[in-house]
Amino acid sequence: MKEQYHSFQLLMLGLQHMLAMYAGAILVPLIVGAAIGLNAGQLTYLIAIDLFMCGAATLLQLWKNRYFGIGLPVVLGCTFTAVGPMISIGSTYGVSAIYGSIIAAGLIVVLAAGFFGKLVRFFPPVVTGSVVMIIGISLIPTAMNNLAGGEGSKDFGSLGNVLLGFAVTAFILVLFYFFRGFIRSIAILLGLAAGTAAAFFMGKVDFSEVAEASWVHIPSIFYFGMPTFELPAILTMLLVAIVSLVESTGVYFALSDMTNRKLTEKDLEKGYRAEGLAIVLGGLLNAFPYTAFSQNVGIVQLSKMKSVNVIAITGFMLMAVGLIPKAAALTTVIPNAVLGGAMIVMFGMVISYGIKMLSGVDFESQGNLLIIASSVSLGLGATTVPALFSSLPGAASVLTGSGIVIGSLTAIALNAFFQCKQPHGAEINT
C-alpha cells in the first residue's frame, strides 16, 4: 500500500479524493447549522471546522501505531446519521449539549474499542460482500439527485443538468476504456474538471462565494461555549457513534480486500479507537462525529491507487481548505450535475466490488442466499423509502434511519442465526 508516486501525481490523486467527498462533507454542517439557527458567521465557522476535522480524522486513521489507526487508505467525514439527533438535541437542550454528547460518546468509543474489535468474527465474506453491496446501492439515490441538479434546486431535472451529468459519466468511461496508467487513475478528477468547464459555458458556475470568502480561519476550542452533559443526549449520540462504526466496518473490510490485507481484531480495535478520538476532537472543536466515507472506496477501486500516501495528501488538503475558506469556496463551484455524473461511476464500482467479494461464497448454501437476499432487499428498501420506520421511537429511528445499517444488521443477525443452526462440528461454508 506504500507505492511510490511523483509529487504531482500524489497531489492530483489526493485532490481527486477530496473532491469526491467534498459535497457530502459540507452538506451536514449546512443542514444542521440552518436547523439550529446559526448566523452567517457561525455557519462559516461550522463548515470550515468540519473540513479541518475531516482532514484531521483521516490522518488519525492513517497513522497506524500501537494504540490507534487502521492504516488503510480510508477517508473520514462527518456522518449523516448524526444530523437528526444533533438537531433534536440542539432544540431540546441547546447547542452546548450537542457537543457535550459528542465528547462523551467519543470517549466511550475510545474506551470500548477493544470490545467492538471482537466483532470481526461476525463478518465472514457473505456478510462483508453483502454490506459493501448495500453501501454502494444506498449511495445511488444521492448520485441521481445530484445529477438532476440537487434536491430543491430551481432547475432540478432540467434537460441541461441531465445531459451534463451523463456527459460527465460518458467522459469518465471513455477515459477508463481508452487510457492506461496515470490518466486512468485520475479519470474522476478529469471528468469533474471537464464537466465544470462545460458547465461554465452553460452559465452554471458561480464564483461569487469565492470572492466573498475570507482568506484565513483559525479553529477555536468550545467556539459555541462550554459543553453541557445531558444523559439522554449522550445516549442518543452514543447510538449514533455505534451506527457509524457499523457503516465504517463495511468500508474497512472492502479496503482490506482491495489491499490484500486481512483485518484482525486488533486492527478493528485501533480503527474504532481512532474514530472515537476523531469524535472527541470534533466535540472539542464544535464539529461533528466522524465515520469512514464509502464514496472514496469507489475511487480506490477505479484508480487502483491504494497508497496511504495519497490519502494523507487528501487529509492535509482538507485541513488546509478548513484554514483557508477562500480555497474551500473554490471547490464548491463544481455544479451538482457534474458531481452526480462522477458519482454514478464511483458508487457503481462500490456495488461491483461487493459482488466481487461475494465471488468466493458458497452459493449452493441456502443460508448464504437468504443472507444476501434479505440484507440487500431490506437495505435497498430502507434507502428508497426513508419514511418506512419514521413512526418508531427516537432510539429505534436512529438505527433504522440508514439502509446501510439495516442491511448490515440483517446480514450479521442472519449469519449468526445460521451458524447457530449448524450441527455441532459441521463446517460453515461462507
TrEMBL record:
Keywords: Cell membrane, Membrane, Transmembrane, Transmembrane helix, Transport. It holds the Pfam family Xan_ur_permease. PROSITE patterns: XANTH_URACIL_PERMASE. One of its GO terms (molecular function) is xanthine transmembrane transporter activity. One of its GO terms (cellular component) is plasma membrane. It is found in: Cell membrane. The keyword Membrane applies. InterPro entries: NCS2, UacT-like, Xan_ur_permease. The chain crosses the membrane at residues 12-36, 42-60, 67-87, 93-115, 122-144, 156-179, 186-203, 233-255, 308-328, 334-355, 367-389, 395-418. Signal peptide: none annotated. It is a multi-pass membrane protein. Coiled coil: none annotated. Belongs to the nucleobase:cation symporter-2 (NCS2) (TC 2.A.40) family. This is Xanthine permease. It comes from Bacillus halotolerans.
